[in-house]
């Protein structure tokens, strides 16, 4: 047995593993992620203008509402729409700020809650109240720290509704700011969006982001709201969409005028807490896990193959995967208005190896029950 083990060419086996990992990565880039890179919005005939209820949940968000709420209230939209801000037991000036906004904007409906919901974590309770208060079937959700990228946000998002469509996934971007942390946050956001948009286009929708998300009120109540998720921290966006989205009832919007913008975290500690809080386990974890696993193994296996096997073959495999990734990333970043990240994409891709090491424990660690 010992002589048999010694006769095995382990470096060849590792190189073959490197080739398999690169091949799997290529499948993801050219079968899945290319769908965002070359996405063309469906050509619609006569678009309908649906009445829309915009819902924002806020807790001690006076500062963010003062900066961002006007951008939601001044949308150019020809049909009936309302803006519901659910003030969930805020201890700051949120209530008084909303009263001042209400004097100018009659479409604003401020719902003030002064109690907590026992056994319901996160913002599922205030969001459920906001949905019950909504007058219209089409719901459009965003956060207090977000502002629409244009005055046509509502118009562009509701345009995606058609026969059989109940869920619309939008992109929640972050402002471009100087510094490494800003680039890492935006790249991780881009990378996540590339995944959930691509899976949705492939008929496997699994999540959305509460910063920019729309679905039908009837869909919410038909599925008994968040009742099955009440004991789960968060989940009001990603896990709920994972539950209700189907291959036929979900559409996406990649129009840059339909994006929302928010300020990213400014310190590493804040970002780490945010990521650990929002980590979830979707049903599609096998396909996502396979991609992450091969992505994680790619660089270590490349280095081993480069040093201990034929460096020319290793470089050839590396080049094929890297060029393919660069093409898909370039076009996808341009579509999501993150093109400035492309100059750094290869370093950011290496960073993802560190990212997986940092956040892998979140797979087993129980998240804290924070409000947001």
Topology diagram in text:
Elements: H1 2-7, H2 10-37, E1 52-58, H3 62-73, E2 81-88, H4 94-104, E3 108-113, H5 124-133, E4 138-143, E5 146-148, H6 153-159, E6 167-169, E7 172-174, H7 180-201, E8 213-216, H8 217-222, H9 238-244, E9 250-252, E10 260-262, H10 268-278, H11 285-308, H12 311-335, H13 345-359
Parallel strand pairs: 1-2, 1-4, 2-3, 6-9, 7-10
Antiparallel strand pairs: 4-8, 5-10, 6-8
Structure commentary:
With 372 residues, this protein is of the alpha/beta class. It has two domains: 19-39 and 284-363, no CATH class; 52-278, Spore Coat Polysaccharide Biosynthesis Protein SpsA, Chain A. The protein is built from 13 helices and ten strands. The strands form two sheets. Strands 3-2-1-4-8-6-9 form a seven-stranded mixed beta sheet, sandwiched between helices. α3 (62-73) links the parallel β1 (52-58) and β2. α7 (180-201) packs across α13 (345-359).
């Amino acid at each position: 047995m010992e002589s048999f083990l010694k006769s095995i060419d382990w470096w060849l086996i590792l190189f073959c593993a490197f080739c398999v990992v690169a091949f799997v990565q290529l499948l993801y880039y050219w079968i899945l992620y290319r769908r965002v890179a070359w996405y063309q919005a469906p050509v619609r005939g006569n678009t309908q203008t649906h009445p829309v209820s915009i819902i924002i949940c806020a807790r001690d968000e006076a500062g963010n509402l003062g900066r961002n709420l006007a951008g939601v209230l001044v949308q150019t939209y020809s049909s009936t729409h309302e803006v519901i801000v659910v003030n969930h037991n805020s201890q700051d000036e949120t209530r008084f700020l909303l009263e001042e906004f209400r004097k100018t904007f009659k479409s604003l409906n401020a719902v003030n809650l002064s109690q907590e919901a026992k056994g319901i974590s996160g913002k599922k309770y205030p969001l459920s109240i906001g949905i019950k208060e909504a007058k219209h079937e089409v719901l459009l959700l965003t956060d207090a720290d977000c502002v629409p990228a244009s005055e046509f946000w509502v118009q562009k998002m509701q345009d995606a509704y058609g026969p059989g469509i109940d869920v619309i996934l939008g992109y929640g971007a972050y402002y471009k700011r100087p510094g490494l942390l800003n680039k890492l946050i935006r790249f991780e956001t881009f990378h996540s969006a590339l995944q959930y948009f691509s899976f949705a286009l492939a008929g496997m929708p699994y999540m959305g982001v509460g910063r920019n998300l729309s679905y039908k009120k009837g869909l919410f109540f038909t599925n008994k709201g968040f009742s099955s998720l009440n004991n789960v921290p968060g989940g009001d966006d990603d896990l709920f969409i994972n539950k209700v989205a189907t291959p036929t009832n979900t559409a996406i919007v990649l129009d840059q005028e339909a994006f929302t913008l928010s300020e990213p975290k400014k310190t590493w500690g804040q970002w780490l807490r945010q990521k650990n809080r929002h980590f979830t386990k979707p049903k599609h974890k096998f396909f996502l896990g396979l991609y992450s696993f091969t992505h994680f193994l790619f660089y270590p296996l490349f280095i081993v193959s480069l040093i201990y096997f034929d460096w020319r073959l290793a470089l050839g495999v590396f080049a094929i995967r890297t060029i393919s990734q660069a093409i898909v990333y370039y076009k996808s970043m341009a579509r999501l208005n993150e093109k400035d990240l492309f100059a750094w994409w290869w370093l950011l891709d290496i960073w993802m190896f560190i990212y997986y090491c940092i956040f892998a424990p979140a797979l087993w660690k129980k998240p804290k029950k924070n409000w947001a």
